[in-house]
C-alpha cells in the first residue's frame, strides 16, 4: 500500500531530506501536502516535482506570487489555519511535522484529531504539550513516530522488547559547536561559530540549540514523553563522533544501541515506513575502523546550564515547559540576529523561568497563554539587559 504523506516545513532541512527519501521509494510513498513559510522558489520546484494536492504558505501575498509561478492544479492555503489544513488533509496517512518551534503545536493537534499518524521531528511540540499530545494520540488511536535521530535509535532498539523492561535511556550528544570551549571563550563566540556543527547539517535554530545543549535538554523531555520513562532514568552522554545515536539499558543489565553515520534520512525513512521495517538507503556505511576509538564523557552542567533547565522544568511540569521553550525561542532568535551574546541566551531563559507562576495540568489555551507571556517577558528581559549596557 502506498502511504500518503503531508510534510509541514517541506523546504527545510528535515523536509528536503524527507522528499529525497520519498523520491527513492515512490512505490511506498506519495506526497499529498507540503508547506513552506516563505521560500516560494523551493516550494515551486517541489510542487512541480511531487505534485501535491494542497500546499501552504505564510501570507496571502505569497500565495498570489506562488499561483503565478506554478502551472499545476493545487489548492493553496495560508498561515496557521492553512498549516492545520495540510496537517489534517483528508487523504493524508502520515503527517511529518518538520516546522520549527511552537508553530508545530496546533497543526499536530489538528492532525491527531483527524486521526493521522505523526512522524514527529518538531520536538518543541512535545516539550510544551507532551501530556496533551500523548492523550490525543491515544484517544484517536494514532501513532507518534520519532524522527529525531536519538529517539529513532531508542525506538529501533525497542523493537520486539517490552518497554516496561527499560531501566535507563542514554541519549547521546555530540556536544555541539562549543563542546570544548570555556565559559570565558563562549562570551565572544557569535552565531557564525555556533552554526559550525561538528557532525550534523541542520536548520539554524536547532543548530544554535545544540551549541547551548538546550536541544539535548529538549530531547530528554522528548524521550520522557515518547517512551514513558521518568526523568531520573534518562541520562545524557557526550559522544563527539555521533556514531552511537542512543542506547537503552534494560533491567537485566543488557544495553542495546543503534549506530550509523549521521544522516537524517535514516530516521525519517524508518518513521515513514513504520511498521514495515527497513528500506534501501544509499548512504555511506559505518566503518568503525575509520574511527578506531569512540569517546564518551559526562555533560558539564556548569558550562551548559540549559540541559539542567530541561530536567528541572520537565519534573516540575505545568506551564514551565512552555515558558522554557518560548524564552529559548526568543533568545535563540535574537542571538542569531546578533542582538544578544551567547551567554545571554541561558540568562534570559533562567530569568524568565524564575518569574513564572506555573499552572498545573494546563489545557491548550493555558499553554498558549504561558507561551505568549514568556515571549513578552523574555523580550523585556533582553531589552533591560541592552539598556543596562548603554
Ligand atoms: P529548518 O529551519 O531547516 O526548516 C524549517 C521549515 O519549517 C522550513 O520549511 C520553514 O519554511 C518552515 N517554518 C519555519 N518556521 C515556520 C513557522 N513559524 N510557520 C510555518 N512554517 C515554518 O529546520 P529543520 O532543521 O528542518 O528542523 C525542523 C524541526 O525538526 C525542528 O523542530 C528541529 O528541532 C527538528 N529536528 C531537526 C533535525 C535536523 O537534522 N535538521 C534533527 C532532529 C530534529
Ligand atoms: Mg537529535
Uncertain runs with pLDDT below 50, 5 residues or more?
A: none
**Which structural class best describes the helix and strand composition?**
alpha/beta
The figure for the number of domains is 2
Strand order of the largest sheet: 4-3-2-1-5-6-7
CATH superfamily of the largest domain: RNA polymerase sigma factor, region 2, helix turn helix motif
**Rg on CA atoms, Å:** 20 Å
Please work out how many helical segments DSSP would assign: 17
Number-wise, the strands total 11
* Anisotropy-based shape: globular
Provide the CATH architecture of the largest domain.
Orthogonal Bundle
Commentary on this structure:
The protein has about 400 residues and is an alpha/beta fold. It has helices at about 15-25, 40-50, 60-70, 80-85, 105-115, 125-140, 150-155, 185, 190-195, 205-210, 215-225, 265-275, 290, 305-315, 320-335, 345-355, 365-390, and strands spanning about 5-10, 30-35, 55, 75-80, 95, 115-120, 145, 165-175, 235-240, 245-250, 255-260. It folds into two domains: about 5-145, Rossmann fold (3-Layer(aba) Sandwich); about 160-260 and about 285-390, RNA polymerase sigma factor, region 2, helix turn helix motif (Rna Polymerase Sigma Factor, Chain: A, Orthogonal Bundle), CATH 1.10.1740.10. The mean pLDDT is about 95. Magnesium ion binds near residues 148, 149, 150 and 219. Nicotinamide-adenine-dinucleotide binds near residues 37, 83, 100, 103 and 122.
Amino acid at each position: 500500500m502506498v502511504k500518503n504523506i503531508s510534510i509541514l516545513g517541506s523546504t527545510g532541512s528535515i523536509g528536503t531530506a524527507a522528499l529525497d527519501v520519498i523520491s527513492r521509494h515512490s512505490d511506498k510513498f506519495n506526497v499529498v501536502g507540503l508547506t513552506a513559510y516563505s521560500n516560494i522558489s523551493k516550494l515551486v520546484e517541489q510542487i512541480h516535482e511531487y505534485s501535491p494536492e494542497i500546499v501552504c504558505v505564510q501570507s496571502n501575498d505569497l500565495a498570489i506570487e506562488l499561483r503565478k509561478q506554478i502551472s499545476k492544479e493545487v489548492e493553496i492555503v495560508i498561515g496557521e489555519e492553512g498549516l492545520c489544513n495540510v496537517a489534517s488533509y483528508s487523504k493524508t496517512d502520515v503527517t511529518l511535522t518538520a516546522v520549527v518551534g511552537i508553530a508545530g503545536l496546533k497543526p499536530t493537534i489538528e492532525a491527531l484529531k483527524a486521526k493521522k499518524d505523526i512522524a514527529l521531528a518538531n520536538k518543541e511540540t512535545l516539550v510544551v504539550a507532551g501530556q496533551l499530545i500523548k492523550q490525543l494520540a491515544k484517544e484517536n488511536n494514532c501513532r507518534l513516530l520519532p524522527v529525531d535521530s536519538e529517539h529513532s535509535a531508542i525506538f529501533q532498539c525497542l523493537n520486539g522488547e517490552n518497554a516496561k523492561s527499560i531501566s535507563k535511556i542514554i541519549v547521546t550528544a555530540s556536544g555541539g559547536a562549543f563542546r570544548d570551549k570555556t565559559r570565558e571563550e563562549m562570551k565572544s563566540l557569535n552565531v557564525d561559530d555556533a552554526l559550525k556543527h561538528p557532525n550534523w547539517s541542520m536548520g539554524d535554530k536547532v543548530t544554535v540549540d545544540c551549541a547551548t545543549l538546550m536541544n539535548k535538554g529538549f530531547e530528554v523531555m522528548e524521550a520522557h514523553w515518547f517512551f514513558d520513562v521518568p526523568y531520573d532514568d534518562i541520562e545524557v552522554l557526550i559522544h563527539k563522533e555521533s556514531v552511537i545515536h542512543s542506547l537503552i539499558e534494560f533491567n537485566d543489565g543488557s544495553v542495546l544501541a543503534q549506530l550509523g553515520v549521521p544522516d537524517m534520512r535514516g530516521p525519517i525513512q524508518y518513521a515513514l515506513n513504520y511498521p514495515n521495517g527497513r528500506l534501501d538507503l544509499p548512504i555511506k556505511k559505518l566503518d568503525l575502523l575509520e574511527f578506531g576509538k569512540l569517546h564518551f564523557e559526562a555533560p558539564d552542567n556548569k558550562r551548559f546550564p540549559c540541559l539542567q533547565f530541561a530536567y528541572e522544568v520537565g519534573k516540575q511540569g505545568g506551564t514551565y515547559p512552555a515558558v522554557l521553550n518560548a524564552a529559548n525561542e526568543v533568545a535563540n532568535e535574537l542571538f542569531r540576529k546578533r542582538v544578544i551574546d551567547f551567554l545571554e541566551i541561558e540568562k534570559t531563559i533562567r530569568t524568565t523561568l524564575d518569574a513564572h507562576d506555573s499552572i498545573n495540568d494546563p489545557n491548550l489555551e493555558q499553554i498558549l497563554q504561558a507561551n505568549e507571556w514568556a515571549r513578552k517577558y523574555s523580550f523585556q528581559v533582553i531589552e533591560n539587559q541592552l539598556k543596562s549596557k548603554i
